[in-house]
Design brief:
By secondary structure, the protein is of the alpha+beta class. The protein is built from 4 helices and 19 strands. The strands form 5 sheets. Strands 1, 3, 6, 10, 18 and 19 form a 6-stranded antiparallel beta sheet that branches.
Length: 282
């Protein structure tokens, strides 16, 4: 079975910038088999630490840029570079956070219980939302959240979760893609992210944000606590694309405009997904 994801990028307000677009990654669930972009010329650019490739697209004319991702169901493992810790301001844990994690997991019976303790402790610290100011804005490390509830998006929650897991010595990776809720019949409004852990050869996936949106902080592993369908397009945080002057941008998930200062800007998107010609629901 194949899955086609189509992303339409509005270029009506573009002032000459290029788009930087992830081209998809392989996971145990899907393998990217083709990528194409219409409405512009494009070339590939490499990320310096993870080896990921992205398309740099120059729009032509006033129409939208249309991106087509074709995936085949089933695949290999998550990319190995996804699990490699790197010291960036989006992944570096503050000393107080490291101490808190060590205290939390001191009596864990095994690695799997350790992971579950961390995941559920992180869930207790957040409410789901999209704050104008994020808890780590302007900081060079991920701070310890000591008390109370912090509003955060899936990106914010998983930033904190990755820092905690790696502080405990757990292999963990950050994945970005699209989640298509069942009730939206193959469409979504923006990107989504989740976390993957690996311990003693066992890979498990975690989506705290969807659990919180469903009204529970009792988190279990698995991708779709809320029925739907998801596709992965990129991984990791603190990415650099030297040819575009981009140094340690937080992430690359959705298509983004490349500014002259190397800062990525939000693009207006329309996102659809079909499985073998039918809108994807599950």
């Amino acid at each position: 079975m194949t899955v086609l994801v189509t992303v339409r990028v509005d270029t009506s307000k573009n002032t000459g910038a290029s788009l930087l677009v992830p081209v998809g990654i392989s996971t145990p669930h899907q393998t990217p088999v083709s990528f194409d972009a219409k409405g512009g010329t494009w070339r590939l650019a490499g990320e310096s630490a993870t080896g990921q490739m992205a398309a740099v697209i120059t729009p032509l004319g006033d129409g939208p840029v249309v991106l087509d991702y074709l995936f085949q169901n089933g695949g290999a493992q998550y990319p190995e570079t996804m699990f490699v810790p790197r010291q960036t301001r989006f992944t570096r844990a503050a000393d107080a956070l490291v101490e808190d994690v060590r205290d939390l997991v001191a009596n864990a019976a095994d690695g799997n219980e350790l992971i579950e303790k961390i995941v559920n402790a992180v869930a207790e610290k957040f409410t789901y939302g999209h704050p104008e100011i994020r808890f780590n804005d302007g900081l060079e490390e991920i701070p310890y959240l000591s008390c109370g509830l912090t509003e955060g998006s899936c990106v914010d929650i998983n930033t904190y979760l990755i820092a905690c897991l790696r502080a405990a010595g757990i292999d963990a990776g950050y994945v970005y893609g699209y989640f298509f809720p069942e009730e939206k019949n193959g469409s979504c409004d923006d990107g989504h992210c989740w976390v993957v852990t690996r311990h003693d050869g066992e890979v498990r996936e975690w989506d705290i944000a969807l659990h919180l949106k469903l009204g529970t902080r009792e988190i279990c592993c698995g991708l779709n606590p809320k029925p739907g369908h998801r596709i992965a397009v990129a991984h990791s945080m603190g990415l650099s694309f030297p040819a575009q002057g981009i140094v340690e941008t937080k992430l690359l998930g959705e298509p983004a405009w490349v500014g002259g200062d190397g800062i990525l800007g939000k693009a207006e998107l329309g996102i659809r997904c079909e499985q073998d010609g039918e809108a994807a629901a599950a």
